[in-house]
Design a protein that fits this description.
heterodimer; A: mainly alpha; MetI-like fold; 2 domains; 15 helices; globular; B: mainly alpha
């Protein structure tokens, strides 16, 4: 993003420092460096390639170190869809619903609050913003017990309430508010003033003028929150205790401890593939937002 | 006063409307934060001093008894030891690997974008997926054992007492070390991104000046790059230690809720999870949470002492 406003760290893409070019012996060194680099890059990919390959193998074939399934079979996938309880289709839907709701909620609440903290004047604004940032210093594990007691008191530890419990915990993160506030601060005030002169109220100005301008920051928040909710394990393992409510990471956990299943690798690897592919797709298309999100989540320190 | 008064004839009503809009826009997030973050922070401290029943609430005031009980429990002591062991090894190893990757990717090399993306790749998947794959790779008949056998490395492993189909994740001697290795691998890419951001902010002139003064690449790294990265070290180490002390996902996945094998994967957070979700003892669990919080805060302050102040960004 050209403005680089969403992050407080210099975005990737700034001029690089050239290593002092000297020795004539650099030729073979360079080649060696490339071999190491490519080797390491491959090492990063092997486990994922291996996972995909294994999901198309038969169980006896799955422990053999061969790259081509022999025979190629869809049994593992069939098993994961039809036999596993809950089916990976159910897990996928649960993950989509939770991650989707969390993403939408963070974008909406985060941009509204971010706009208020950046632009509107009200008493106690600075103190309240510090309160928002202070929430990042409280580890989830310390909140676990009181939140659990509170939620079990109001019926959020059973039935559909379990979804609500996880959603409420992830519905808004201080990181989202912080990212969007920082971005709104960089936008010129003239635009809003022009809209205001044309007779638009605060909300109209926000929807029609500010939200469209903030789309790079919104994208960063959306990607960051979707990934976080999709991959999340701690709150789901505590609250989504009814099997049919499990998300994909939780499904992997259940299957691992389901009796005798631990060694039925092909369907387990199929579940891993389903749990990972959406994030890989997001990563391929929105890589820069991942980088920005990581840089921004640095606030957590 | 006069200028402001003239340009806006009804400043009070406008200002009030603006303030009301401000409060309305932050109302829902603030409510959630006050109840689920700030409020529960204080509530946790309160709960930790009681014998608490999940349905009936506080039963008996215990003062610091929950804390004494935890600190006196050998399993909890083991959990603290495991967690500290993990953090002390995992953080520096990940920093070294992350910094190395950042320095390499920061060079003028072809395919830089590809390498950066590839190195960060293991960090994007969920801990659940990665750990499942890891257990599969390190299983007795998994790829790792197959490959080392095929490469003829088995005599070497045999010398250290690891048989040809050694169960790396399932054996108490190696379980924690394999988790460390796993997390170094997955987190190094994240640390690389942090370091990269810092490396790119060091200006080229500094290196040119050093080169004129006769400094080679090695000296430049030792005397320019490393000191200039001090704020990054602080940041990465702090984030790392906070994360390390909260180790949970990989431990419960690779072992079990009980810290198997033989308590070797029992961590502080896993112990807390057990106390609440399995033993259903909220007062005791809250005390463990408070202990963990104090440890994290202390570690952060100590690091601030070692590395100096926080980075400007």
């Amino acid at each position: 993003m050209s403005q680089g406003a969403a992050t407080t760290i210099e975005p990737i893409g700034t001029p690089r420092v050239a290593p002092p070019a000297r020795h004539p012996s650099r030729g073979w060194r360079r080649r060696l460096a490339y071999i190491v680099l490519v080797g390491y890059a491959l090492l990063m990919m092997v486990p994922f390639a291996w996972t995909v390959v294994t999901s198309f193998k038969t169980l006896p074939d799955s422990t053999r170190p061969t790259l081509i399934p022999d025979p190629f079979t869809l049994q593992g996938w069939q098993y994961a869809i039809q036999v596993l309880d809950p089916s990976i289709v159910r897990l996928l839907l649960n993950s989509l619903v939770i991650a989707g709701a969390v993403t939408i909620s963070n974008v909406l609440l985060g941009s509204l609050a971010g706009y208020a903290f950046a632009r509107l004047r009200f008493r106690g604004r600075e103190v309240l913003f510090i309160v928002v940032l202070a929430t990042l210093m409280i580890p989830d594990q310390l909140r676990l017990v009181p939140v659990y007691i509170l939620f079990s008191g109001i019926g959020l530890t059973r039935d559909l309430g379990q979804y609500v419990a996880v959603f409420l915990l992830l519905a808004i993160s201080a990181t989202s508010i912080f990212l969007l506030r920082q971005y709104f601060l960089t936008l010129p005030k003239d635009l809003e003033e022009a809209a205001r002169i044309d007779g638009a109220g605060h909300l109209t100005t926000f929807w029609r003028v500010m939200m469209p301008l903030a789309s790079p920051a919104i994208a960063a928040v959306a990607v960051l929150q979707f990934q976080g909710a999709w991959n999340g394990f701690f709150w789901p393992v505590v609250f989504l205790t009814e099997r049919e409510h499990a998300t994909l990471p939780l499904g992997l956990y259940l299957f691992r401890f389901a009796g005798g299943f631990a060694t039925n690798w092909p369907p387990l690897m199929a579940t891993v593939v389903i749990a990972t592919i959406p994030i890989v797709v997001l990563y391929v298309f929105f890589q820069r937002y991942f980088v920005e999100g990581i840089a921004a989540s640095g606030v957590k320190g | 006063m006069s200028v402001a008064g003239r340009s806006n004839p009804t400043p009070r009503i406008g200002a009030r409307r603006e303030a009301m809009a401000g409060y309305a826009l932050i109302a829902i997030p603030m409510l959630l934060f006050l109840v689920l973050n700030i409020g529960s922070f204080l509530y946790a401290a309160y709960i930790s001093t009681w014998k608490w029943n999940i349905r009936r609430g506080p039963q008996e005031f215990l003062g610091l008894e929950n804390f004494q009980r935890a600190l006196g429990d050998p399993v909890f002591q083991q959990a603290i030891w495991n967690t500290v062991y993990y953090t002390v090894l995992w953080v520096p190893l990940t920093m070294i690997l992350g910094l190395s990757l950042a320095v390499v990717v920061n060079q003028r090399i072809r395919g830089q974008t590809f390498f950066r993306a590839a190195f960060y790749f293991p960090a994007i998947a969920s801990s659940a997926a990665i750990t499942t794959v890891w257990i599969f790779l390190m299983a007795p008949d998994g790829l790792f054992n197959e490959v080392r056998g095929a490469l003829g490395l088995n005599p070497l492993f045999e010398a250290f007492g690891f048989g040809p189909s050694f169960n790396w994740v399932g054996n108490y001697r190696t379980a924690m070390n394999t988790v460390i290795l796993l997390n170094v691998w997955t987190t190094a890419g994240t640390f690389m991104l942090f370091y990269l951001a810092s490396l790119q902010s060091i200006s080229r002139e500094v290196y040119e000046a050093a080169a004129i003064d006769g400094a080679g690449p090695r000296q430049a790294f030792r005397w320019i790059t490393l000191p200039m990265l001090r704020p990054a070290h602080f940041f990465v180490a702090t984030v790392g230690v906070i994360g390390g002390l909260q180790l949970f996902d990989q431990a419960i996945f690779a072992g079990s809720p009980n810290g198997d094998p033989a308590n070797s994967l029992m961590t502080v957070v896993l112990y807390l999870y057990n106390a609440l979700v399995i033993q259903i003892d909220p007062g005791y669990a809250a005390a463990v949470g408070v202990i963990l919080f104090v440890v994290i805060m202390t570690a952060t302050l100590v690091q601030r002492r070692i590395f100096g102040s926080a980075p400007a960004w």
